[in-house]
Amino acid sequence: MTFKPVIKEIVASDRNEENGLHQFVVTLTNQAKCRLFFSKNPDWKIIGVNRLLNMPCPICRKDYYCNCMSNYASDFEQQIIEQNPL
Ligand SMILES: [Zn+2]
């Protein structure tokens, strides 16, 4: 089964205008939540993905931190830019 994250909801969480760092908390269609780190300089670029621990990882099923979601950074980046919540 191929996993593809689909963002259902985006909440702006934190921003620092000085260094252009922005954080978003996103909810996926499978209810998993991730915190996305972006830099805007001047284009949006994703620099990090942290899965929140509201449910086990949809990929490895771990109930603790893992790096699976980092492999989908470009999917997240594309969806954030398309949905442009800013
Ligand atoms: Zn995982």
What does this structure look like?
The chain contains 1 helix and 4 strands. By secondary structure, it is mainly beta. It has one domain (7-83). A 4-stranded antiparallel beta sheet has the order 1-2-3-4, with helices on one face. The longest helix has 11 residues, at 73-83. The chain is globular and about 40 Å long. 19% of the residues are buried. The model has no long low-confidence stretch (mean pLDDT 93). The structure holds zinc ion. The site of zinc ion (ZN) has 6 residues, from loops.
Strand and helix map with partners:
Elements: E1 7-16, E2 21-28, E3 33-40, E4 44-51, H1 73-83
Antiparallel strand pairs: 1-2, 2-3, 3-4
Bound molecules: zinc ion (ZN).
Can you give me a brief rundown of this structure?
This protein has 86 residues and is mostly beta strands. It is built from 1 helix and 4 strands.
List key phrases describing it.
single chain; mainly beta; 13% helix; globular
Low-confidence stretches: none
Shape: globular
* Strand order within the widest beta sheet: 1-2-3-4
* Class by alpha and beta content: mainly beta
Based on the structure, what is the oligomeric state of the protein chains? single chain
